[in-house]
Amino acid sequence: MQVVALKHIIFLFLALLSLTPLISSSYALVLGLLMALLGWVPPQINPSAWVKRLLAIAIVGLGFGVNLSVALEASINQLGLLIAVIVSALLLGWGLIRLTRMQPTTGALISAGTAICGGSAIAALAPAIRARSEYIGVALACVFVLNAIALWVFPAVGHFFQLSQQQFGVWAALAIHDTSSVVAAAELYGEESLAVATTLKLTRALAIVPLVFVAAWWYRRQHPEAEAASKLPAIPLFIVLYVLAIVIAEFIPQGEPLYTFAFQGARHLLALCLFLIGASLSVTRLQQAGLKPILVATVLWLMIASGTLWWVLHSA
């Protein structure tokens, strides 16, 4: 009993330590993964749930360090590309579902998660198409595994191809599933990359609303006997607060010291999120995903990641 308590204390100590400058974001990720592999994550703690809560707070804090003109330029200039990537991912996903003859609902959830916003898109789409819990679980497991891989692979690939901060930010925002992994990977690459990736990724996340609207309409058309699908999801509050933070920092410059403090605090909070992301990975999740779904999810993700990387490298 004493050993169990000790390992849980070590986990909490490292989690708190990741909030300080003593542990960098990359080391925080490694330490979290080590805790998961050793089985030292307290059973009372759900790292994935905490990541979602803490990341929302961190994103709002990051808004105080983003220049308004830069944010607008990034969103407007890449809007056409964002739409093209989302539509391409959905069409490619549909093709892979038919080619592999995998369960269509699971495939639709994986495609939506790849196209827009990982777990958030899956959670929003599932009620609209009456997805069963086992299909949702498999799709979430696939996306989670690929998110964890992206944290390691993307910065390495970015350095290999000598991507600029701007280029990497755009690539990460277009090709990584969840907001948490986009922000974390960009933070590992650099501060300018973080600002670009966060803004562009949150713009991409807004596509959840029209996607669920279309999916609900299509489901009712295919299943007229079913009840009306769920209501459209509201725009996540943290996106609204992120935009508000950018506007406040732009038009009330007198609060610069406070904005700097909030931005730096958010950077440290991101390190904690990385620690928790590492702690969330387990062999169980890999087994839960299954061979065919993880294969389809991986192929789809590689197609989108390689295609957007090619565009980033040749668009200058």
Automatic annotation (TrEMBL):
<keyword id="KW-1133">Transmembrane helix</keyword>
<feature type="transmembrane region" description="Helical">
    <location>
        <begin position="232"/>
        <end position="252"/>
    </location>
</feature>
<keyword id="KW-0472">Membrane</keyword>
<feature type="transmembrane region" description="Helical">
    <location>
        <begin position="109"/>
        <end position="129"/>
    </location>
</feature>
<dbReference type="GO" id="GO:0005886">
    <property type="term" value="C:plasma membrane"/>
</dbReference>
<feature type="transmembrane region" description="Helical">
    <location>
        <begin position="258"/>
        <end position="281"/>
    </location>
</feature>
<feature type="transmembrane region" description="Helical">
    <location>
        <begin position="53"/>
        <end position="72"/>
    </location>
</feature>
<protein>
    <submittedName>
        <fullName>Putative sulfate exporter family transporter</fullName>
    </submittedName>
</protein>
<keyword id="KW-1003">Cell membrane</keyword>
<feature type="transmembrane region" description="Helical">
    <location>
        <begin position="202"/>
        <end position="220"/>
    </location>
</feature>
<comment type="similarity">
    <text>Belongs to the UPF0324 family.</text>
</comment>
<keyword id="KW-0812">Transmembrane</keyword>
<dbReference type="Pfam" id="PF03601">
    <property type="entry name" value="Cons_hypoth698"/>
</dbReference>
<dbReference type="InterPro" id="IPR018383">
    <property type="entry name" value="UPF0324_pro"/>
</dbReference>
<feature type="transmembrane region" description="Helical">
    <location>
        <begin position="12"/>
        <end position="41"/>
    </location>
</feature>
<feature type="transmembrane region" description="Helical">
    <location>
        <begin position="78"/>
        <end position="97"/>
    </location>
</feature>
<feature type="transmembrane region" description="Helical">
    <location>
        <begin position="293"/>
        <end position="313"/>
    </location>
</feature>
<feature type="transmembrane region" description="Helical">
    <location>
        <begin position="135"/>
        <end position="161"/>
    </location>
</feature>
